[in-house]
Amino acid sequence: MAGEKNTPEKLLDLAETYIRTGGYSSFSFRDLARDTGIKSASVHYHFPTKGHLAAAVALRYRSRFEQALMDPDLPDFDPEAALTHYFYMFYQEMLSARQMCLCAVLSVEKPLLPEAVMMEVQAFFKLNLTWLRKTFARYYDLSVDSQPVDRQAAVVLAALQGGLTGAQALEDPEYFKRVAAGLYQGIFNTELLFPQA
């Protein structure tokens, strides 16, 4: 049937849901085989090991995130608009998925992860920090390597990730909104107006 997802995509979707709701250790290939109606050997055919599968999930997650970011190297890049969009990305992800950030969940399980998976997790965080540094460098008209830019990037990523974690733990999306709005007010001295859910 046209538009129907193929088996690897279904496996990636299922694995992402398992990881985001219960972590890397929350599922096996037998679970995926049962959920997709195929044999466990068929799961291994597409992804030889769980590490290969989780790394592919994390890579896909990072790629999706990267594609949604505005390019800070473009001449007409608007840092404030880009950062507003960035805040909205976290907010919409929280509302639509109602799950934890995939890479935040995986980072907690670092001792259990194969190296390839951890490398993808680190790449996600590095992507965000690099983008934030470039964006704040444009906003403040400072070097991308300057201390104020580096600190601001770290604070924003930590606060938004923490806001997602707190909202999930409290089952209260308003918690994230309070964190994000307070952070945004501190940067731009203006209110962050959230889009309609």
From TrEMBL:
What is the name listed in the Swiss-Prot or TrEMBL entry for this protein? Transcriptional regulator
Instruction: List the keywords (alphabetical).
Output: DNA-binding, Transcription, Transcription regulation
The HTH tetR-type domain sits at 5-65
Q: Which PROSITE patterns match?
A: HTH_TETR_2
What's the superkingdom here? Bacteria
Keyword Transcription appears in the UniProt entry: yes
Known PANTHER family for this protein?
A: HTH-TYPE TRANSCRIPTIONAL REGULATOR YJDC, TRANSCRIPTIONAL REGULATORY PROTEIN
Recorded hits in SUPFAM superfamilies, A to Z, give:
Homeodomain-like (SSF46689), Tetracyclin repressor-like, C-terminal domain (SSF48498)
Which InterPro entries does the entry link to?
Homeodomain-like_sf (IPR009057), HTH_TetR (IPR001647), Tet_transcr_reg_TetR-rel_C_sf (IPR036271)
Annotated GO molecular function terms are:
DNA binding
Q: Which organism's genome codes for this protein?
A: Gynuella sunshinyii YC6258
Which parts of this chain does the entry mark as a DNA-binding region?
28-47
What the entry lists under Gene3D superfamilies is as follows: Tetracycline Repressor, domain 2 (1.10.357.10)
